[in-house]
Amino acid sequence: MKKWSIDEGNCSISYTLSVAGGRWKWLILYKLFKNRVMRYGEIKKELPSITHKMLSQVLKELHSDDLIERIDYAQVPPKVEYQLNERGKSLIPILELMAEWGKENCPRFHM
Q: Which parts of the sequence belong to the HTH hxlR-type domain (predicted)?
C-alpha cells in the first residue's frame, strides 16, 4: 500500500495523513488511547482482521513517526508494550471527533 505523500494536495492535511493515514493507524491509536498500555497480542485481539505482518508494520511506522512508545522489557519470554506518547496524545481530540461522528452517522447505531 502506498503511503500518503507529505506533498499530496500541498496542504497541512497532507502531512497529517502522511503520518497517521491508512486503514489501521487511527484504529490502533484509538485502542491505545482507550486502553492506555497494550501488548502486541492485545492489539491483535482487538483488531482480529489485521494480519500479523500489517500490525507489525503499522506499529513500526507509528513508532518511527513518534506517535507511540515501544517499551521493551529485558526478560524471557520477551515482553513489549505500546502506549501513546505526548505527540500521539495530541491526536486524541481528532479521534474523539471521529468516534462521535461515527456514532451519529453510522446506520448500525440508528436501527
A: 11-110
